[in-house]
Specification:
The chain has 908 residues and is an alpha/beta fold. It is built from 30 helices and 24 strands. The strands form three sheets. Strands 10, 11, 12, 13, 14, 15, 16, 17 and 18 form a nine-stranded mixed sheet that branches. It has an eight-stranded mixed sheet with strand order 8-24-23-22-9-19-21-20, with helices on both faces. Strands 1, 2, 3, 4, 5, 6 and 7 form a seven-stranded antiparallel sheet that branches.
């Protein structure tokens, strides 16, 4: 062939339209002889110009980056500032204590997230794909990465297509395209040119990188490699799809900013008040640091991190591997799930579902097994003959069993026949195959000829319209009957009905033949076989659980709308008729008019969706205010998985690209694992809200206690080191106990919380204020009595204040109980961790006062029996007042999902 100029390959990657040109034109543009391939020198030149046939992978998160990420957040910044100021004023004890808090929090988050990230990376080990290419006239097996545009590759059953390939020769080639298009059934290929604008899923003369060859063989020319393949294009979309900040991160950041302003406001008021009352400004600066330490809940980052980490570990035991700590809570905040169909809701394998026979439809139950093969051989019933044809008229060489390879539809027919005693191996021994007419796209059928005891017989299987046009009779248990035009029309209508139900329909037929007679005419129709990629076990129940929890489930698939709608109905995506929307490739969602956009938003199934359109849909629903979860396993799901608030990929069937883009991987590929993870996420947010309210009310009591003393011109009742001890020891352990609550078990019976809802609502702030005042007033009274009435020294009075505040905050944990629960029997009192935390912290307080070394470090002294009694009695007042008030008003701090209720609710 005539060689083009050397610059002919300059526009190799412009061959996005290779499907529109003939094989000759494609070869000419790529300057290659299909019988020789490229010379080694030309391969080197093209590889130097276009690079290796590799797709950029997601960069591994380094341990250093994971460590730095733990130091983000307003609360952390406040603590860093407080530590810095403490060191400036040479308050070394306070500075080192604050630093210790930061170090502990950082290490917990770092270890938890590093463990999760390394577990994810274990799943992402890519296998090296080899291929066969013609080089200088000789077939060579080489790594797919060595391919260049213009290489001639040879494909056969079992291969993964190594690059985007324009087919130039093929023999019964079928490809599994589910990873890229979502199409669950292998697609037959040909080499003819197609019209410009043909959908990707319908470009049957192209084998795109990532397709799996189900059957047949082919020769093709590489038209794109690396990042310029369709998969490479999707990978680029994935990298550009910036992940959303998690709802919890947004809420805690808002809370942190509010704490900053609150701290500055209170410090300013008290500082100015102190200067007015005659105190030195340097002393007031030191007090301001004390107030900052008191205002910021040092334990909040630690408790939140540990609560999320514990949720991560619990989810891992339930087969949900979490990549980032924040993803744990995001699962609980989900309001919508967009899910792929193939391999996610379905098994990604074909199954014979129904046989439509002349005497009526027969539903096919694969749990029924026929143990005796020989007893079925002479069975001439309609069902027996249909299954015999399904087994013998089959392109796969497999005889069933564990070592199955081939077209999933062919294997499904063999498996169904075997389950009724018509094993392929046994049938071939009894009726040896003498001749085969392979499937081709022109005739849309295949045929095999077999020796039988009564002569030779042809078995035929193919597209119903093609087979019906060649039939003149129909098989019956009694006798064959003439198939006239009226009866043919009835069968065509039946075929249309089955197709509308989402079934893939094949017609089965036969006829007796003479020697050397291979005409596929005068057939006897036996029936229609309906196949489907069945729904996965447990999906119906899992989707039902999501809907009861107020989570909307929408199927987004590249498959056809009829098939998708049938699966959607089977798995209960809607309690009424499933609404579908078939997406187009040419119009962006932003360009749709309002009426059509409403149809898209309300649809239960969105079919024929490209990767770009999936990404647009995620953005659309996010603009509607949804927290969007995306489930998928294919390459085509990756951009949407990355952009979604929570991307969830399959661990067993999921592609590496999908797993790299996701925040969560389901190790068992079960949709039910999603509902378990959502429930755990909701429990965790409820727990976080509980301990946030607990910690803030404790910290407010410290601010009010110190502020009151300053404004009254009294000595400070507590030092910064005392507050740090209380905040990080006696506050944190009860908060841990609240954070480890198991939940009420009713989390999935409630609708999702408003995505815009903050961690602390206005009603929570009221509760925080009330309890903060109760605790501060009670402790300040104990401080005043100890110093003014009992005449204790300043050190003794400070110790009484320390003990009273510690005990009051510990007892306060029982005020954080669920609305309407019993005074003595509620989730708080039934939590053994709460009792352990309260008991352990009381012991720590005693140790802090009596153990030499520690007591000197904390500047505490034994206040005597009277001091201990005084502190213990006044510490009980806030808890008793809170419990009596709650019981009398039937009003608890937190409702079932962690919201403050102004009126009673029913018991959990």
């Amino acid at each position: 062939m005539t060689r083009r100029p050397e610059s002919s390959t300059d526009n190799v990657y412009a061959m996005r339209n290779a499907y529109t040109v003939s094989t000759e034109e494609a070869l000419e543009q790529l300057d290659v002889d299909p019988d020789i391939g490229l010379a080694e020198a030309e391969v080197v030149r093209r590889r130097n110009r276009f690079g290796a046939n590799e797709i950029k992978k997601a960069e591994t998160r380094s341990a250093w980056l994971i460590l730095v990420e733990q130091l983000r957040g307003v609360v952390i910044y406040i603590l860093l500032a407080a530590a810095f100021i403490s060191f400036v004023f040479q308050e070394w004890t306070d500075g080192f204590a604050i630093t210790l808090v930061l170090v502990v929090n950082t290490l917990i988050g770092f270890v938890s997230e590093l463990r999760a990230v390394r577990s994810m990376e274990t799943l992402r080990k890519l296998d090296t794909v080899d291929t066969v290419a013609l080089r200088a006239g000789h077939p060579s097996r080489l790594a797919a990465a060595q391919l260049v545009p213009g290489d001639i590759v040879l494909l056969e059953a079992g291969d993964l297509v190594p690059a985007d390939v324009r087919l130039i020769e093929q023999s019964n080639l079928k490809c599994d395209e589910s990873a890229l298009t979502g199409e669950s059934v292998p697609v037959s290929k040909h080499t003819h040119a197609l019209d410009d604008g043909t959908r990707l899923a319908e470009r049957v003369n192209i084998a795109y990188r990532g397709y799996a060859v189900s059957s047949g063989k082919a020769r093709g020319v590489v038209i794109a490699t690396g990042a310029h393949t369709e998969i490479g294009h999707i990978a680029q979309l994935t990298f550009l799809a910036s992940p959303e900040t998690s709802p919890l991160e947004k809420r805690l950041d808002i809370l942190g900013r509010r704490l900053v302003w609150l701290t500055l406001l209170l410090a300013s008021i008290i500082g100015i008040g102190g200067v007015i009352t005659g105190q030195h400004w340097l002393e007031m600066a030191r007090i301001a640091v004390t107030l900052a330490v008191a205002a910021v809940p040092e334990g909040l980052p630690v408790v939140a991190t540990v609560a999320l980490a514990r949720g991560m570990w619990r989810m891992a035991r339930q087969n949900a591997l979490i990549n980032q700590l924040s993803a744990v809570e995001t699962l609980g905040a989900m309001t919508m799930v967009l899910t792929d169909k193939t391999g996610t809701l379905t098994e990604n394998r074909m199954t014979l579902t129904l046989l439509a026979l002349p005497s009526g439809d027969v539903g096919f139950d694969h749990t029924v097994q026929n143990v005796s093969e020989r007893s079925t051989v002479n069975d001439a019933s309609e069902q027996a003959v249909a299954l015999k044809i399904a087994s013998l008229c089959n392109e796969t060489e497999s005889c069933g069993g564990e070592d199955e390879r081939g077209d999933p539809m062919e294997l499904a027919l063999i498996d169904a026949a075997s389950s009724r005693g018509f094993g392929r191996k046994m049938l071939l021994e009894l009726e040896p195959e003498r001749h085969r007419i392979p499937f081709n796209r022109e005739q849309m059928l295949m045929a095999t000829v077999h020796d039988t005891p009564t002569g030779q017989r042809m078995y035929v299987k193919g597209a119903p319209e093609s087979v019906l046009s060649r039939c003149t009779s129909v098989h019956s248990d009694l006798a064959d009957e003439i198939l006239d035009d009226k009866e043919k029309e009835r069968w065509r209508e039946l075929n249309a009905s089955l197709s509308h139900q989402g079934l893939r329909v094949l017609a089965l037929a036969m006829r007796d033949v003479q020697q050397a007679d291979s005409a596929i005419e005068g057939l006897t129709l036996v029936g229609l076989a309906g196949l489907m990629d069945p729904a996965r076990k447990g999906v119906l129940e899992a989707i039902g659980a999501c809907r009861r929890a107020g989570i909307r489930v929408v199927m987004v698939t590249g498959d056809q709308s009829g098939t998708a709608a049938k699966i959607a109905a089977d798995v209960g995506i809607s309690d009424k008729d499933v609404s579908t929307y078939e997406s187009g490739n040419d119009i962006a969602l932003d360009e749709l008019d309002d009426d059509e956009l409403k149809i898209v938003i309300s649809a239960d199934v969105i079919a024929r969706v490209t990767p770009e359109r999936k990404l647009e849909l995620v953005k659309l629903y996010q603009r509607q205010g949804h927290i969007v979860g995306m489930l998928g396993d294919g390459v085509n799901d990756a951009p949407a998985l990355k952009k979604a608030d929570i991307g969830i990929a399959m661990g067993q069937r999921g592609t590496d690209v999908a797993q790299e883009a996701a925040a969560v991987i389901l190790l068992d590929d079960e949709f039910a694992s999603v509902t378990s993870a959502v429930q755990q996420g909701r429990v965790i947010f409820g727990n976080i809200r509980r301990f946030v309210v607990y910690l803030l009310s404790c910290n407010l009591s410290e601010i009010l206690l110190i502020g009151t003393a300053v404004l009254m011109g009294l000595p400070l009742p507590l030092m910064p080191i005392h507050i740090l001890f209380l905040n990080f020891v006696t506050d944190v352990f009860p908060a841990f106990a609240l954070g480890f609550g198991e939940g009420s078990g009713q989390e999935m019976q409630r609708t999702p919380r408003d995505p815009r809802e903050p961690v602390v609502l206005r009603a929570h702030w009221i509760g925080i204020g009330v309890f903060g005042v109760l605790i501060a007033a009670s402790v300040f009274t104990a401080y005043t009595i100890s110093s003014r009435v009992l005449g204790m020294s300043e050190s003794e009075a400070v110790t009484v204040t320390f003990i009273a505040l510690a005990f009051a905050q510990l007892w306060h944990v029982f005020n954080i109980r669920v609305c309407g629960t019993d005074l003595l029997k509620n989730p708080i009192t039934r939590n053994p961790l709460v009792w352990g935390a309260v008991s352990g912290c009381m012991i720590l307080v005693v140790v802090a006062v009596f153990v030499p070394g520690l007591s000197e470090f904390l500047q505490l002294v034994n206040p005597g029996v009277s001091g201990w009694i005084l502190a213990s009695v006044f510490a009980l007042f806030p808890m008793l007042a809170g419990q009596l008030g709650l019981q009398f008003l039937s009003l608890s701090i937190l409702g079932p999902e962690g919201t403050l209720n102004e009126i009673p609710e029913s018991n959990e």
